[in-house]
Amino acid sequence: KKNVKSVICKKKKHLNSQHLFLFIIYILSARELPVSHEMKASLKARCDIDKSAAGATLAVNAGDVKLRASMTDATIVNGPSLNGLALAVEKPGFFIIDYNVPKKDFRFQFMNTIRVSDKPLNLTYIHSRGDKRTILDGTLVFDSANKVSANHVIGSRNCKLKYIYVHQEVTTFEQIYDVAKNSWDFGVSRKVYGEDVLRASYQTSNKALGLEWSRNSKLNGSFRISSSLNLAEELKMPKLSAESTWDFDM
C-alpha cells in the first residue's frame, strides 16, 4: 500500500508540474480581452569557433498578454523532441512565467516600479523553482543620463552594484562592483551610424578584455559579432562568435 501511495503521489506531482503552465494560459485566455491576432516569429543563429547553434521563437499577442514558445536546434535534430523547448506567458512590465518543458522547471519573474524622492525605482523579483534560486534586482533612475542598480542572489554573497552614465545619448559608461569577487568591471559603448553599437569591456578579476559590434535593425535584422581575450593566458588567442536574428510578422 505504501508503494502504491508513493506512486500516486509522484504522479500527482508530475501532473501538477506539467499542467500548471497550461492552467495559467487557460485562465488568462478565458478573460474577455481584445485579441489582436498579432503573431511574430524570430530566427536566431549563433556561430562560435568550435560549434554553432540555432533557435526559433513564436510569439502571439492575446490582449495585453503575450504567449511565447521557443526552441533550439536540439528540438529538431535527431527527430522532433522536447529538448530545448520552452514556453512563456508574459504581461510586459508586470510578470513573466517561463516553463522549461524537458526539465519541467518554472521560472517566475515579477516587475514593478515605485517612486523614491520622485525618482523611478524599477524592481524585479526572479525565482527559479528548479535550482531554488531567488534574485532581487533594482534600478534607480536619477535622470536620462544617470542610473544605479543592484543585483543580489538571496542567501549568497553574489551581489553586483552598477553605475551607468550616458553622455549626450551616444556614449555609455558602465562601472560594476562585484561584492563576492571584490573586483571591478568596466564597459564603454558608443552608437555609430544610427543603428550600430561598438562596445568594449574589461573584467579585472580574470583580466578578460571584450570587444563587440552589434546592430539592431527592424528592416535588415540584427547581428552581434564579439571577441574576447584573456590577458592572463600566456598564449593570447581571441575567442570569436557571431550571432544573427531575423524577425517576421505573420
UniProtKB/TrEMBL annotation:
UniProt keywords, alphabetically: Chloroplast, Ion transport, Membrane, Plastid, Plastid outer membrane, Porin, Transmembrane, Transmembrane beta strand, Transport
Keyword Plastid: yes
Main location: plastid
Gene Ontology biological process: regulation of monoatomic ion transmembrane transport
UniProt entry tagged with the keyword Protein biosynthesis: no
Subcellular location: Plastid, Chloroplast outer membrane; Plastid, Etioplast membrane
Annotated GO MF terms: porin activity; voltage-gated monoatomic cation channel activity
Xref: InterPro entries: OEP24
Top-rank taxon, per record: Eukaryota
Topology class, membrane: Multi-pass membrane protein
One cellular component (GO) term of this entry: etioplast membrane
Function: High-conductance voltage-dependent solute channel with a slight selectivity for cations transporting triosephosphates, dicarboxylic acids, ATP, inorganic phosphate (Pi), sugars, and positively or negatively charged amino acids.
Assembly and binders: Homooligomers form large rather nonselective pores in plastidial outer membranes.
Protein name in the entry: Outer envelope pore protein 24A, chloroplastic
